[in-house]
């Protein structure tokens, strides 16, 4: 009879170390043959844990499958900070080994501990991990009166957060940096973003941000003000942009190709609709490609991938999209064909045209595949002497179609 394999046990541990662990967590560690973890976490274990202690290699993710295979048949425990399923190694291990092969014993997360110390309702507080993400991902969460808990990468993260808030006009925001939460050396430092005087804090910290200041709020919905973009004029105007994003219909986790990205506005606002949305911006002009990257960082989606190249050749090798927007290159041979071929079943393609030649291409494809064809003409009020008149922008023809 074959013995049942040992489950892989992931134990959440806090700054309070062994003293803060539950009975089942202690039993898992004392009964383990091997314990994986970071150096800081492994150092929290007492001599009573006789298992072989193996620090994580760097880089970790590529090495994980091999580590699990090398220790198959042994009782393996993994130490993780706080709640392993909250921005932790637990979620990664479940994806690799499957939920039936992993047992997770969580500890209170640093976000839970911080909310408890501050008296902030966690359900009403935004939580963002900057452990591996760039600080620019904070931008979409910064709104007047909002509270944010930021999980830091290191001791310099609070200063970077303070600088970003100050640059956005939120220098009045009170900051509280809570370090070593739950441990014997727990402490906090406070200040405002504009006057932050702590360039390097304890590396194990959570930043509490209470957003205050005269900074201009950035809307949550598509159709951001045009002036928020650095552009050379190649920008889908906000009224057309809002209609275009509505036609694209972003859903959580979906991938967009923004072909002929210009200033990057469609891909950027696609990603802003949900943290899990992804986009690839394809742009043939080097200066514009650089501008797309800068706009993406400034508007809080630095993970936007920018491909410098000309479609359709630049599309080769990209992951299949759930939606495609074509804002340029419609008259180039193979662009529409390649995009439609790559699009997943049920995916949406939206193409905008402002020239007669591009309109003719869309009309032909509409005749062939159906979908919706519409034309938008926007006029904006502008001074006419001492009065106000309407100044028309170029009309835009929009074709949208869903792939069967």
TrEMBL record:
Residues 8-195 form the Tetrapyrrole methylase domain. Pfam families: TP_methylase (PF00590). One of its GO terms (molecular function) is protein methyltransferase activity. Keywords: Cobalamin biosynthesis, Methyltransferase, S-adenosyl-L-methionine, Transferase. Gene3D superfamilies: Cobalt-precorrin-4 Transmethylase, Domain 1, Vaccinia Virus protein VP39. One of its GO terms (biological process) is cobalamin biosynthetic process. Pathway: Cofactor biosynthesis; adenosylcobalamin biosynthesis. NCBIfam families: CbiE, CbiT. PANTHER family: COBALT-PRECORRIN-6B C(15)-METHYLTRANSFERASE (DECARBOXYLATING), COBALT-PRECORRIN-7 C(5)-METHYLTRANSFERASE. This is Precorrin-6Y C5,15-methyltransferase (Decarboxylating). It comes from Krasilnikovia cinnamomea.
């Amino acid at each position: 009879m074959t013995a049942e394999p040992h489950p892989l046990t992931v134990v959440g541990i806090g700054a309070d170390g062994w003293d803060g662990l539950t009975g089942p967590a202690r039993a898992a560690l004392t009964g383990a043959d091997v314990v994986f973890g970071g150096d800081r976490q492994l150092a929290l274990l007492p001599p009573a844990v006789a298992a072989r202690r193996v620090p994580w290699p760097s880089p970790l993710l590529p090495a994980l499958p091999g580590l699990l295979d090398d220790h198959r048949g042994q009782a393996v425990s993994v130490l993780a900070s706080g709640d392993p399923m909250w921005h932790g190694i637990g979620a990664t291990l479940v994806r690799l080994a499957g939920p039936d092969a992993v047992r997770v014993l969580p500890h209170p997360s640093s976000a839970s501990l911080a909310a408890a110390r501050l008296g902030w309702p966690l359900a009403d507080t935004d939580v963002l991990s900057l452990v591996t993400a760039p600080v620019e991902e904070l931008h979409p969460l910064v709104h007047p009166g909002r509270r944010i808990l930021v999980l830091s990468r290191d001791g310099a993260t609070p200063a970077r957060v303070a600088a970003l808030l100050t640059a956005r006009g939120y220098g009045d925001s009170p900051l509280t940096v809570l370090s070593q939460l739950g441990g014997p050396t727990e402490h906090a430092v406070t200040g405002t973003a504009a006057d932050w005087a702590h360039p390097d804090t304890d590396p194990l910290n959570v930043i509490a941000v209470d957003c205050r200041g005269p900074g201009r709020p950035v809307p949550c919905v598509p159709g951001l003000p045009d002036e928020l973009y650095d552009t050379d004029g190649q920008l889908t105007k906000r009224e057309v942009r809002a209609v275009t994003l509505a036609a694209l219909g972003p859903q959580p986790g979906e991938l967009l190709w923004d072909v002929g990205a210009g200033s990057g506005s469609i891909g950027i606002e696609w990603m802003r609709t949900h943290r899990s949305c992804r986009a690839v911006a394809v742009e043939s002009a080097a200066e514009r490609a650089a501008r797309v990257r800068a706009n993406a960082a400034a508007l809080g989606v630095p993970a936007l991938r920018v491909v410098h190249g000309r479609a359709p050749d630049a599309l080769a090798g990209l992951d299949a999209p759930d939606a495609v927007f074509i804002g340029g290159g419609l008259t180039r041979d193979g662009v529409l064909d390649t995009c439609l071929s790559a699009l997943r079943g049920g995916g949406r393609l939206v193409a905008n045209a402002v020239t007669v030649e591009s309109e003719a291409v869309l009309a032909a494809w509409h005749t062939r595949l159906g979908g919706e064809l519409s034309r938008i003409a926007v006029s904006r009020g502008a001074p006419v002497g001492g009065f106000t008149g309407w100044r028309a922008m170029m009309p835009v023809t929009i074709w949208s179609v869903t792939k069967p």
